[in-house]
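Bench notes, afternoon.
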Amino acid sequence: MKLATFAINGRERIGVVKDTVVVDLNAAYSGYLRSRGVSDPNRRANAHIPPIMKSFIEQGDQGLEAARLALDFVERKAYKVHNAVFPLEKVKLKAPVQNPSKIVCTGLNFEDYRRILNLQYLPVPQIFLKAPSSIIGHMDPIVIPEGYGEVYHEFEFSCVISKRCKNVPKEEVDEVIFGYTILNDITAHNIELITREYQQWAKSFDTFAPTGPWIVTQDQMPPDIYNLRMVRRRNGKVECESNTKHMRFHFDDIISFTTTFWTLEPGDIVTSASPPAGPIELGDTIETEIEGIGVLKNPVIGKKVTTEYALKAGIR
């Protein structure tokens, strides 16, 4: 399933994207239950699908089974279920998980980018945290504070954690992955280049984590997720083509390493790191396409802020 968070008529919901429509899972499942003789499903415990992605993920297999029943019901009704099916073009796609407890990013993990940077790999995954408050969704604007130097578009294959986990063996990592999405690790490049001590500042500006456009469950991904085409575009022009086959550490390595020291929660996002990145400017529209997932697209705008801190930090 392609699971999305979307807004329609002033309400945020979660749904399944099917071709040109999105199915509101809460409404569809309520319709399914009524067809089975449940008169008021929303008053029954465990008889609904929550409208929040993180809560849905926490339901585990129970939630996924309810979603399958809801989707099957809508399909049998030829997608004619009142207030449950909407044209995709009429809804606003939001970040699939809007409030993860953590965004765990990985650095320097694609061989094609390492060769360009001429850096040496660390012996273990290079992980860092990006602020959850930096998350935005498909077509939301990336806002660059003016006067703080060049900004780069790092495009990353990412997974979403399915359940609370700690000390996960490599061979069991698939059991804690709910699905896959795209996350753009937008980075204030000039700030990061001054010193690695500024990395958290450079990575976590508001709007610097476009995510989406949806989550694709494991069963709907191509059989080999480590052979997926990745494309970075700016203003419709391809600026980089790569492939997940260039990843040095796979998610089994990254998650097993991370959970040795940190507890991951449902809805947390873990990234792959980026193939060769590139600069973005005010007025651009950037896209990331990953095979099996889709296209995440965002415009780039600017915002005037005080340049006091740029001057103090020596940013040019």
